Amino acid sequence: MELVGRDTGQAGDSLRHAAELRERGHALPGAGQLLAALEERGVRQSVVTGNVRQAAETKLAAFGLDGYVRLDDGAYAEDGEGRPELLPAALKRAGVGPQGAVFLGDTPADVAGGLEAGLRVVAVATGRTSASDLRAAGAHAVLDGLSDTDRALAVIGA
What burial class does residue 128 get, using C-beta atoms within 10 Å of its C-beta: 0-12 exposed, 13-18 middle, 19+ buried? Predict the structure, then answer.
């Protein structure tokens, strides 16, 4: 009985947190459509984030994006401190080499980590970092956003 009580409390906390996220934030315009299009093409998708896994799951679920990604293939704050540690962990879990993956990021640190891991890096200028700064960081390609699904698919190579 005690475990059920704890689980219910955690679930309630997650639901409240998800509701707060939906009130304060949003998914990038086009993100859901792009993830769905990648899934339709059989592209395996996961997450690499500095968030702990539970927070990542809550954020993805809050915006209806969790059904597109294989969370077990991802890497989270529990796995390391930065992209140079997280990306190899995710690749290992997914059983994929760097040549078989594309990393989407939105910061110069993401670009640097992806390049260090030997990945093709597609950067997305979400507003925090300009497209020119992402190009200067060495991204192989830069998208201004995710709203143009066909363009994003072409740049990703899917």
Answer: exposed
Contact present, 74 and 47 (Cβ < 8 Å): yes
- Torsional class of 38: left (φ above 0), alpha (ψ -120 to 50), beta (otherwise): alpha
Asked whether 111 and 143 are in contact (CB, 8 A), the reply is: no
Predicted confidence (pLDDT) per residue in 60-86, tens digit: 998 899 999 999 999 999 999 888 899
Question: Per residue in 4-62, pLDDT tens?
Answer: 323 334 444 555 555 565 566 778 889 999 999 999 999 999 999 998 999 899 889 98
Longest C-alpha distance within the chain, in Å?
56
**In the β-sheet with 102-105, what is the strand arrangement from edge to edge?**
102-105, 120-124, 141-143
What is the arithmetic mean of pLDDT over 84-109? 94
Task: Flag whether the pTM goes above 0.85.
Answer: no
The C-alpha angle 122, 154, 136, rounded to 5 degrees, equals 30
Q: Are 51 and 74 in contact (CB under 8 A)?
A: no
